[in-house]
Amino acid sequence: MIKISTFLLLSFFSFCCSANTDTVAVKKHLKNITKTASYRNPENIAQLNAIAHYIKTDFLKYSDKVSYQEYKVEGKTYKNVICSFGTENKQRIIVGAHYDVCGNQEGADDNASGIVGLLEIARQLKGKKLNKRIDLVAFTLEEPPYFRTEQMGSYVHAKSLKDTKVDVLGMISLEMIGYFSDKENSQNYPVAVMSKMYGNKGDYITLVTTAEKGKFVEDFSQHFKQAKAIKTEEFNAPRSLPGIDFSDHLNYWNFGYSAMMITDTSFYRNKNYHKKSDTMETLDIRRMAK
């Protein structure tokens, strides 16, 4: 059996290669997810579940191991969508992104971009021989008012893994991966001194980790940076730093799993965050594909 580091590089990182990413499909998915009759939030549960159905239908093109993980909140049924590859293997890698939005807005970067990332990974994993199981999970209810509650789809999923004693190697959260800028002062930070370390241009993708990141995150980060598909920075910071745990990976941390977030840094760069201006027209499809 090949070593985990080689597995990560050869079997999983194929999606990093922009030549293999279908930018036409990326644009189509973004349009279908964001340009809808109503907004995909808990107030519009029919629209939210229609997007879940869209994700499941696309997943089924690439795997016959696709399912809903349903749960109830205040009498309403919400759905995580799970697509699995390499199910003959015991040890599991989770890659997740949330498909709901905050309020009445399209949520192109937050977080249709992450969902499209999942769909592209699924397409590229089709037919691949793996020595680890990979579960791609589209989460519901990441946004307020459910953020940091047990109603988050990622909490429900992480708890189910813990309760059933699943052997989880690690988890990756794709949270806002589509917004980039080459303009001076387009990148902000929670601590001003970070601008001296990482620069003031929002022209990179970020791997968010902590000091207790674990071997999976350490290996993943190393190989992601070595691939050099896109300019990459690693933020290794305590969870107390604002924004470090502002996504679904926080629930996997809370259950003791090695987890991380891949992000364009969210509101530290993208000023359309949680606004009606967060549309697909503002995204950099070329760099998002990388």
TrEMBL record:
Alphabetized InterPro entries for the sequence: M28_fam, Peptidase_M28
Name this protein carries in UniProt: M28 family peptidase
TM helices/strands, residue ranges: none
Keywords, in A-Z order: Signal
Keyword Signal belongs to the record: yes
Entries under Gene3D superfamilies matching the protein: Zn peptidases
Signal peptide stretch: 1-19
